[in-house]
Amino acid sequence: MKQLLLSILLVACSFVAKAQMAQFQALYIYNFAKNIGWPSEDANKELVITVIGDNDLAAELNKLAATKAVGTRKVVVKESATTNGLQKSDIVFIGEAKSGQIGSLMSAQEGNKNLIVSGKKGLCAQGAGISFLSEGGKLKFEISNKNISKRGLQVSQKLISLGTEVD
């Protein structure tokens, strides 16, 4: 009986930790959006965030989008199971479980002015602009100014200084 209760407690704790991680990642992504120099022709358009393979994060972003904008831009969150057939997105997040598809994502999004964010450490080396990582139980991020600039975007020095620059 004790073992069953311990197992239930461990499963419950993992769900709580995953939900908290999604909340923090959503806040980070919202702040990333505020610190990116978006093309001026997009100023009056919706800011579209597409989430690949992370339903918890998409749900948290939808909660933020219901009450917050990025400047004057309304935030719209879309979900996708794959990197194929994505509509125009300003930010594309690829979850850790789908990180093996980063190459096809980069090919599919070539020429688009968008920010690619990954849920797995080290994907800036494969073209992502920002990669989340966990260090000492804290959520942090790697950032590649070079990769972000290649996609036609500008990143604030403030954002670069908050992450670990990998260029």
Structural class: alpha/beta
Order of helices and strands: HEEHEEEHEEEHEHE
- Number of H- or I-type helical stretches: 5
**What is the mean predicted local confidence, pLDDT?**
86
Tell me the total number of β-strands. 10
Distance from first to last alpha carbon:
53 Å
Q: Order of strands side by side in the largest beta sheet?
A: 3-4-2-5-6-7-8-10
- What profile does the largest beta sheet have? 8 strands, mixed
Parts with pLDDT < 50 across at least 5 consecutive residues? 4-16
Shape: globular
Computed Rg: 16 Å
Helix content: 25-40%
Fraction of residues in β-strands:
25-35%
Provide a quick synopsis of the model.
With 167 residues, the protein is of the alpha/beta class. It has helices at residues 2-34, 55-67, 102-108, 145-150, 157-162, and strands spanning 36-37, 47-52, 69-70, 73-80, 91-94, 115-118, 130-135, 138-143, 154-155, 164-165. The protein has an eight-stranded mixed β-sheet.
Key words describing this protein structure:
globular, two-stranded antiparallel sheet, single chain, 39% helix, alpha/beta, eight-stranded mixed beta sheet, 5 helices, 167 residues
